[in-house]
Amino acid sequence: MTWMVIGTDAVLGVFALMFLVLWFRFRLRAFLAGAGVVVAYAISEVIKLVVQEERPCRTSPSLAECPEPGDWSFPSNHSVIAGASAMAIWAMHRTYGWVAAVCALAAASSRVVVGVHYVHDVLAGLALGALVSWGIAVLLKRNERSKDDAPTVVMQRLG
């Protein structure tokens, strides 16, 4: 294995560490953000079953071991996880979010460099993951605002 192959999986570990650190500050939000990553991954698996695009490593040499036949290329699961994690982390902590965004781009790029995905696989994966996490972050903020506004609404009705 090359350092690029190992690095792709190591970046996923970096995201896990960031979620762990953020857990101590945000608890439920960090848990739900992590759940959003799982939802994004599940959606990508459904898309893979529909699209069934062969990987580039089936026809060209690659630096990484080519996954088993039936493990489709589009979208890149690593990129989905990276995009979802980066967006979720960004929603909780801007500084960590910048680090996560750079890590997500590096992870996605490495999948193309090692020859197991096409560029459109990783771009779609990043976009899918980020959109799912963004949607969950919007719902969480809306839910927080409605809880914050509840006493005001009650007081207005009483007054």
UniProtKB/TrEMBL annotation:
Q: MF terms per GO, please?
A: hydrolase activity
- Phosphatidic acid phosphatase type 2/haloperoxidase domain spans which residues? 28-137
According to its UniProt record, where is this protein located?
A: Cell membrane
Q: Which residues cross the membrane?
A: 6-24, 98-116, 122-140
Q: Which GO terms describe its cellular component?
A: plasma membrane
| Keywords per UniProt | Cell membrane, Hydrolase, Membrane, Transmembrane, Transmembrane helix
The superkingdom of the source organism is Bacteria
Which Pfam family is an annotated match for this chain, by its short name?
Answer: PAP2
Q: How does it sit in the membrane?
A: Multi-pass membrane protein
Q: Which PANTHER family does this chain map to? A: DECAPRENYLPHOSPHORYL-5-PHOSPHORIBOSE PHOSPHATASE RV3807C-RELATED (PTHR14969:SF62), SPHINGOSINE-1-PHOSPHATE PHOSPHOHYDROLASE (PTHR14969)
Protein name as it appears in the record = Phosphatase PAP2 family protein
Q: Which organism is it from?
A: Lentzea alba
